[in-house]
Amino acid sequence: MPGIATLRANSNATIEATITAVSPVRDVTTSRGPSRVADATLQDETGTITLTLWGDDITRYSVGQKVKITDGWVKDFRGKLQISMGRTGKIDILA
Fold first, then answer.
1. Given 1.10.10.10, 2.40.30.10, 2.40.50.140, 1.20.1730.10, which CATH number is that of 4-93?
2. In a 3-state reduction of DSSP, which class is residue 6?
């Protein structure tokens, strides 16, 4: 399976990584209305990337869990790569 270091912006990706940190929850207003968002830091042996967690997903995941993201969407946000579920992605807890 490709590592985080191989990910490129504006593409779909499947990765396995461990959550090493979760930011405090922020209240934001999106085009769909108010929402809550937090950033999780994912790490594997090749690097780190930020996973954007929205709504109920914020409480579903925690530091130390190993997760598999299938068909996630990678984008460049303020010069750093981030991965999110996009339209078709899913996240599974492995351990």
1. 2.40.50.140
2. helix
Kindly give the pairing relationship between strand 80-84 and strand 26-30: unpaired
Task: Give domain limits for the chain.
Answer: 4-93
pTM (predicted TM-score): 0.89
* Residues contacting 46, CB < 8 A, separation 6+: 3, 4, 5, 6
Tokens (6 digits) for 87: 């339209």
Query: Tokens in use for 28?
Result: 């934001």
The alpha carbon torsion through 48, 25, 53, 80 (nearest 10 deg) reads -40
Q: What is the pLDDT of residues 29-41, one digit of tens each?
A: 989 899 999 999 9
